């Protein structure tokens, strides 16, 4: 019997309590449920063998409430194959309070979602330890120790492999000569015993320990297969030696046991090296931030402090050739900054006072003083690392099918080996041939390739995309992106530069300066690009906007506020009311720009025509989407003339103007409901609803935080060519996943029957098994060569 105290969100009254209690009590395995509205908690007693926290959370969700959860990530040590990761996942899900668990074999990491306050890390570690693995609870604050530990582990593996090869090589030489008919050239039985025994029980001790841990807890993994196969060959060789004496010379299988263990160790070492390469994107990102920063104190002195301890407001000095240690604003100096490893943009960007800089970028030529605007954990670089880690830690839907196969893989292979031995014995009556065939089956079966096929491709693909300035939020986004059929663009800031300028002013009443003063005053509090254009134009004319009161943002229409007690409106024609507009002024249909109309209580005071320059790469991006079979659509709140002019310039056939933010979301939902796979591209707060409604949302990295939080893909530089590049990266990643899974399954489907029929010796089977996972990881590493077109 188990008990949980689940934190519940969304309850508002006694009826909610009664409904949730009824639902919980009726759930299978639940013995008792008591819900407390004041504490917002549900105390549930249940049979742990019949249900778990994940099932209870689903019951709560179906009732219309939510279980408040928290997510933690832990390194896991001791996993060797897909069966291991599946076993750890099952063990974690068995802990009361665990709602979900994802174990990534390639990253050797477990991401555990628990009901808030219900599970301690120590409880998780204890449960995993009992299963024969180690869940690491405490991690160092910096990531460098993890990198160093990985290098140390590789070095230790390399030394072990070298020793094993040295001990095995004399026996391999004898095998090579025997294959050419020189049977008399081989080691004496005593020599084989002396060389094989340390390989079997000292170097191979890791396999025995892992196999024992797995079997002790009711599981089975690759180590069980290796131990069964090599031990059978070793013990049978001793049997022949003891019963035949000197006649056993040349008939023993000690070398098969030694070669299998050596090849498996070599394969594991190569696999570890390749897996390290797949995580290079994370390591490169973490290496961008310098460990220290030169902080200028109030007395003018400089002090070197750890970058993680720099506070908001501190002034940091960045000399030529140094990396910028913090996100901040330049307060002094002029330079060019190389942001290529953050944004993928190879051309250095000019920076001067008032410009923002990103931590991790390289200051190339000038001397800069930067005022810190974000703490280390809130920096752009930290957010990028978190996004890449989240994408790499996730589990694709196809991987869940692989996990189910991995859970039964080893028992099935053992069964096949037993049947193989029995069949050979029945047909040939030769126990030796029967044993060799069974050993070959045990050794060639490889669940490792199955477990590595998907995560290594995802890690390498998302890492390559990140280097190009494309940040993919999670695996779900990566899975949906290859199937997109329609990409919907918001106009401003995506296909255009996003910095419109006032090109003409028309005044209907008063002076031009009066019109600009009123228009700038009411728009000074708005973040809209058109508002900024008007304010900048006014300030460029020497006009400082007076303060406005009771400011209101009328989404998709305009803004309003009071200036000197008089209500001022600025926005589209319908918002300011068309009365008083001269009939010969028809900018909305003739000029191809966007008109900001300005009115007061007496009527329309004037209008400002704004134009936004087209991004030079926009036509190429649209054409690239077409060649990929994706239909581009423009959806904008601007005037029809501006929208259709832009559509004709970039080559888009479908465009919609005067669309309000909620209408954008509805448009996307309609297309999705019609069976289309829709992506939305935007950069502003008003795009957030449509980004959330789309199958995949693309946010321009220079846009608002709201847009970037809502979107599934963040583009670190405002180039529309990154959109087809993101689709290409996701398609390339899933091509690799399909290739890897095809190889992993076909390898086992062909290899196991071939071994059972006697076509493969144990040595060849061991070699094939050792290099199957290496091939899968190496194939994934080819994604590192991917670059956006």
Structural account:
The protein is an alpha+beta fold and 789 residues long. 50% of the residues lie in helices and 19% in strands. The strands form six sheets. It has a seven-stranded mixed beta sheet, sandwiched between helices. Strands 10-9-11-17-12-15 form a six-stranded antiparallel beta sheet, with no helix packed on it. β29 (696-700), α26 and β30 form a beta-alpha-beta unit. α13 (397-428) packs antiparallel against α15 (448-467). It is elongated, with a radius of gyration of 33 Å. Residues 139-145 have low confidence and may be disordered.
What value does the Rg take, in angstroms?
A: 33 Å
Largest sheet: 7 strands, mixed
User: Distance N terminus to C terminus?
Assistant: 59 Å
**Backbone structural class:** alpha+beta
Secondary structure: elements and pairs:
Elements: E1 2-9, H1 14-26, E2 30-36, E3 41-46, H2 53-62, E4 66-67, E5 69-77, H3 82-93, E6 98-104, E7 109-115, H4 121-130, E8 134-135, H5 144-179, H6 189-203, H7 205-216, H8 222-244, H9 254-278, H10 280-288, E9 292-296, E10 302-306, E11 315-318, E12 328-332, E13 335-338, H11 340-343, E14 349-351, E15 356-357, E16 362-363, E17 368-372, H12 380-393, H13 397-428, H14 431-444, H15 448-467, E18 470-472, H16 475-480, E19 486-489, H17 491-495, E20 501-507, H18 512-523, H19 529-540, E21 549-554, E22 558-563, E23 566-571, H20 573-576, H21 587-590, E24 594-600, E25 603-611, H22 618-627, E26 631-635, H23 640-650, E27 654-656, H24 661-673, E28 678-682, H25 688-693, E29 696-700, H26 705-710, E30 713-715, H27 722-756, H28 762-781
Helix pairs in contact: 3-13, 5-6, 5-9, 6-9, 7-8, 8-9, 8-14, 9-28, 10-12, 12-15, 13-14, 13-15, 14-27, 14-28, 15-27, 15-28, 18-19, 27-28
